[in-house]
Amino acid sequence: MALTNDNVILRKATGTFAKQIVFRQRFGKTVMCNRPCKYPPKTPTQIANQERFKRANDFAKAAVKDPEKKAYYQSIKKPGQTAFNAAFQDAYHKPEVEVIVEEKVVIKTTGKHRIIKVQVGTGHAVLNNKQWEHPLIEKPFTVKVYDIAGNICTIEIQV
After folding, report:
1. Is the Cβ–Cβ distance between 88 and 55 less than 8 Å?
2. Which of 157, 152, 142 is closest to 101 using CA atoms?
3. With 4 labelled, which of 38, 70, 81, 159 sits at a CA distance of 20 to 30 A?
4. Beta-strand pair 126-128/123-124
5. pLDDT by residue (tens digit) across 81-134?
6. H-helix or E-strand containing 1?
């Protein structure tokens, strides 16, 4: 991209030249650049990722306005990171969940996600020493983990 200020020939020039160069006016200066190309239509994966990004951005904006959530994200942020960045990261990534089935169902989450509820089948698990517990169900069941950012992590368990 080239800029011109006081060139007599190119002053106030706009449009395409020889189907290769485009002249544009930006902030009172003439800018020369390549012709824009047409991009292929977005794939469903790209559209889903854009929507996920938008949802995470909206959550982070709202979280920074809420003093309680902002204080939480201030406490878990990494060095050089803002509360907005920490909230965005929390909303963009789903929590990582580990399910252990023994005498009872034990659900552990890793990371700094704040889990608000865990649903096991039709019942709800109870928080006990940083892990969620629920009595064992003798049939296939689904575990749903809900975090504060609105992410839902679903795991199907076959017993």
Report:
1. no
2. 157
3. 38
4. unpaired
5. 999 999 999 899 888 888 888 888 888 888 777 888 888 888 888 888 888 888
6. none
